[in-house]
Amino acid sequence: MNLLQQTLSPDTLQSVQTASFELFEKLSNKFFVRLFIDLLSVFVLIRLIFYRNYKKADQYLTFFAFNLVIFLITYLLNKVEMSMGAAFGLFAVFSMLRYRTESISPKDMTYLFLVIAIGLLSAISKGGWDELTLLNGIILLATFLLESNWLIKKEFTKSLIYDNINLITPERRSDLLEDLKKRTGLNIHRVEIQEIDFLKDATRMTIYYFD
């Protein structure tokens, strides 16, 4: 730092410091308030709702990075009178992104869609902090209710290989369900037979159960 100060002339150094202060002055309190509400909303969505239900921490970087980049880009573009059509066009471009190396589950894509929506909404909303908090709160509340068992009972699926093909006939479906419940300990209520291998006396099926 001392070497830099010795290299630069006093006038140049003062110009650099003045430009730095002007940069921070251009970012109003409104920007930092919106950024705080945006990051807080995403934290609640990902840490308290997504992770609580799916125990997946590997998506943290993806969700927070997407949200932050969307917020900053949209906030900047909003400074040049970006129309609502352009905003939704940007939203559509980012929401249709796919990874090439691995497939993304519908649940992960839904949460990616939500963090993009929160970032976009936080950047272009014309209301105050109270209105923005209310809008983000509605998204969070709706997601929480849909992920809980309050509105609809959550159904899960698993694919497995079953070795007792004598029970797969329609008339013995109740016996099949009881045997599967006893073996897996899951509250299974229906099954779908996918394949039957009579040579190995086994079948591949999908079980449906409630948590």
TrEMBL record:
InterPro entries per record: DUF4956
Pfam families: DUF4956
Organism domain of life: Bacteria
Organism: Emticicia oligotrophica (strain DSM 17448 / CIP 109782 / MTCC 6937 / GPTSA100-15)
Ranges annotated as spanning the membrane: 31-50, 57-76, 82-99, 111-128, 134-152
Keywords on record: Membrane, Transmembrane, Transmembrane helix
Identification of the protein by name: DUF4956 domain-containing protein
